[in-house]
Specification:
heterodimer, A: alpha+beta, Heat Shock Protein 90, 8-stranded mixed β-sheet, extended, B: alpha/beta, 2 domains, 5-stranded parallel β-sheet, 7 strands, 50% helix
Chain lengths: 709, 206
Amino acid sequence: MSDKKINTLKFKFDVSAYRLLGRELITDRITALFELVKNCYDANAENVLVQFEQINPRTDKSKIIIQDDGIGMCFEDIRDKWMVIGTSSKRKDRQTPPPFNRKVVGKKGVGRFAVDKLGAKLLLKTTQKGSNKLICLETDWSLYEDLEHKQLTLGFSGDNQFFTDIENNYWTEYTEEGISGTALQISMVSDVWTEDDISRSIKELSKLISPSSILTYPFNIVIDAPQYNNYKKQKVSTKAIDIATLKIELGFNEKTKKQEILAIEDGELTKIEVNERACGLVGMTLYYFDQTAKNKFRKSFPEEGIDGIKVYRDGLIATPFAEYVSHRDQKKDLFGLDKRRWSGFFDKIGTRDLLGWIEISDERNPDIIDATNRQDFVDSKGWLELKSFTIEQVKKIEEFLKNKRNKETNKSKSTFKKAKNDLSNIIKQLNIVKDKAESPDVKQSLIAVKKELAKTQATVTKSLADFQNLEKQKKQQENLFFSLVSLQTYAGMLSHITRTSIGKIKRDAEFIHKWMPDPRFNDQYKQMGGNIYSEMNHLGDAVDFLLKYAKDDQKFEEINIKDTLERIFNNIYHDEFEKRGIKASLEINKDLIVNYNLKSFEDIFDNLISNSFKALVNNTSEKLIKCSAIVENNKFIIMFSDNGYGISEDNKHRIFDVFFTTTSEQGGAGLGLFIVKSRLEALKGTIKVVDNEFKPTGTTFRIELPFKQ
Amino acid sequence: MDKLNAIIVIIDDEKNIEKSNIALFTELKINFESVIVFMNQQEGINYIKNNIDKQRMLVLLDLGFPSEPTNGHDILNSIRVFSFLVPVLIWSGIDEDDETFADLINNKAFAFLNKNASSDEIISKLTEAYEYADNDISIALEDWISTHSDEDKNKPYILSLNGKELTLNEILKEIRIQSDIGKSFSKKLSKLTIDLLTRNKENLDD
């Protein structure tokens, strides 16, 4: 036993802490500027003036001044907040005072050290609202730096001063009452600010406030760099986007917890309300630019770019945060718009065709959390859902545009046809007139006109044929693409089968080669021979299956639906059903013959079966797949059901969308049901989800095919 | 050639795997003590868990289990919950994408074998895993313990940090299941060894 005397120790900050908090925490100076302007926003400022004085070349007179008309600080604020690292006042009061009641954006309490990134010396001048005292505080980071150097010198023997030991001068001046705000005068500027740097700053600062909330929270930023003609008192503003081809605004109803989403009705974009999604309610504004609109935009705003969708939290940008990667391809594609596979095949929209923002809030969307580096969000369920929500909306726009293009194509096609008919009518009329004409001159002229008309007619006929050919080619390309996509799915499955088989054969051969004729293994040699034979048969089947894809894709043939389904269920998938413990039944006694490409037809059922496999994986009870057919009102109706986990009500309206998937973990790319639908549409058929046949859970698809195609 | 003293534990859902892979199984039995197959994932995991302190095991794990909700990744995860020492070799017919592959690395899969690998390749990787595990501190301890009498093995030997007395056999178990005591013991033993070597109290030649 001993009498314990307890002493204490305190943490101290080494002088070098100024670097850790300032120049090393803030990655670049534009972000630093951004941080400081953001502080003005939090101080309820309405106007911020950012002045660059003599900043090219850099001299003793170079200065950056950031001045706002916010609430300012009193001496206690300076002492207890500004001078306290990591001060939590902003975390406590998450709203700025009236009239703005802005959501406070700074939380960490280190933003002010961003100054160090811009220059070594800071003179802070601030007046609190209603006061005439101007508090001035001088911080000279170069003192810290000098001291750090000294302490690092070998043989240093002075007092080891710490970060918190250094004295910063302050004094009070007097000013006119009523003018409040804070000014940061930064001198001993670290870098030259070129015209390009100023332009980039403007570009980034213009993203600070979402255009739609400007009305609620007036916040003006003016940049003044008198050395550059283009940047004398230039106002930073979010441009009203009048140029866009399409403007879409989606809202929500907080009371009923309903979210607006895009839908397509009769080929037109409409909005429908659905239940709140896992990301919480969000507002979304999207502008789509077609090529013409893009050109116009570029002309009007050479400084700006069409650069995708940004996220604003409570009216202030959350991400991409002050990002200014100058090369476009390196820009963050937050929603994965450009990364979507098969880009380009379906006339996809990418980040360069869209400009928009998503409005979230701390309250409505608590599960969407900024990653610490502010370049992304934490991979929470809410964020993942917001991503897929966004992609779904973009896909609806894509579908709408595709419909519109198809309509236009059809319109030009019929105009062509009409022109062709009109021309032959005119020629007929002309013949009658010519025969009746008495004057040889008139006759002669009419013959000439007829010749010209015949030429024009030939051109129109040829153009129409070209047009139709082009259309056919496009269809062929699309079919080829579909084949490739399903090929990719099956290639995975096949490579597994072939590798396993090859492995077995290889090891059997290896063994025989190594040990034969050692009589100890006579029984094994015999078994291996049998195994090799059966594995070779497996491989043969796999190759036959693959060969389907090598055949001419354009071949159309008479397909007997009954026979085909029997082959799929009783031959092709028989083993697979057994392996997975699935009881599959096919009930079909009517028949229908369609003229279509066999592989494309088989694709429909390959995809439906593959979906059922995924849905049945977790079934603990008996696993069932059932396919039955009936004839109803001149239609051949196929019902395809399984008793898997089913489709949730929320997803029913989008399961046929391209790239929609709920099974990405099991390798689902969201193409299966899209291919099914497209294939059936080509047969003039339809597919929809109806009440599930099996209870309690499961899925039933109703496929309708007309007798007369 | 002598058989290596380890049990090959195969977790794979292929029916009759032994019959259809007769060459591999024959080779495995020529080279290792015994081979045991589990089609059921949980039974395989339980076997490893229950025998981890009794015998040396090398696990050959299939990744794809199409009829099950969980796959080889999940099995590896479950094994790593109770031991990072048992070598697990992945054996699969599918190519993993980067993300899932990273998951295997994080869980210290010993090797990735393709389903079409030859028996020689498989045996050689398993042997490598055996030798690697042989360098493990638990194996060294096991060898050392085996030179002692049964009585000594069950004698309280070492006083652990919290004052608990442990026999040699108990220490071995703690190391194999990688408990806090086991990990801390291994760490201290390594430190002590380095200390002894650097102070020339011991040298590596003996």
